[in-house]
Amino acid sequence: MMANLSEKLADLAVIVGDIEARAEAFGREQKSRRKEKIADLRKTAKSARDQAIGAAQSKQDQVSIAWSELHKSMVEREQKVRHQIEETKRSTDRSRAEDLANRLEANAEHALGLARVSIEEAELAIAMAVDARTQAEEGAAKD
Predict the structure, then answer these.
(1) What is the spatial distance between Cα 137 and Cα 142, in angstroms, rounded to a whole number?
(2) Contacting residues for 41 by C-beta, under 8 A, at least 6 apart
């Protein structure tokens, strides 16, 4: 499972690292191409959301995707992880420690999935902002 987490984290690092360069290149695109890319990004973000929701539902997890609940969830998760880490330190039972490690890895995988959805949403927001700014500047140049 750790290899899977490492792969997902590496994927996120690549995505995050490329957003700025893609945003700059996006600003230089023709208006019609920007609209196509925004539509593609919208589809990608929706697909990422749908996959995250589907994965949560298939595991019968109750996941709230409301942004107002995200902070609360993250704080609760941090507290739970801290408690579980303390539990691991006290545990001398290898089987129990292994189960706990599996639960923590699943929590990390879930958090990485949420991060990916957030990144897709951020990239869409950036593309739309760049498009709006470029249109505003093109309109001002015509005046």
Answers:
(1) 9
(2) 120, 123, 124, 127
Question: Contact, 100 vs 87, CB < 8 A?
Answer: yes
Read off φ and ψ for residue 63, nearest 5 degrees.
-115, 125
Distance CA 85, CA 97 (A): 10
pTM over cut 0.70: no
CB atoms within 10 A of CB 39: 10
Cβ–Cβ under 8 Å, residues 37 and 123: no
- Alpha-helical (H) ranges within the chain are 2-27, 31-58, 67-90, 94-142
- Rounded to whole angstroms, the Cα distance separating 141 from 13 reads 38
% of the chain with per-residue pLDDT over 90: 0
Please state, in angstroms and as integers, the Cα–Cα distance from residue 33 to each residue in 18, 36, 41, 82, 122, following that order: 19, 5, 12, 47, 19
Which residues contact residue 80 at a Cβ distance below 8 angstroms, ignoring those fewer than 6 apart? Answer: 107
Q: Give tens-digit pLDDT for 115-143.
A: 888 888 888 888 888 888 888 888 888 87
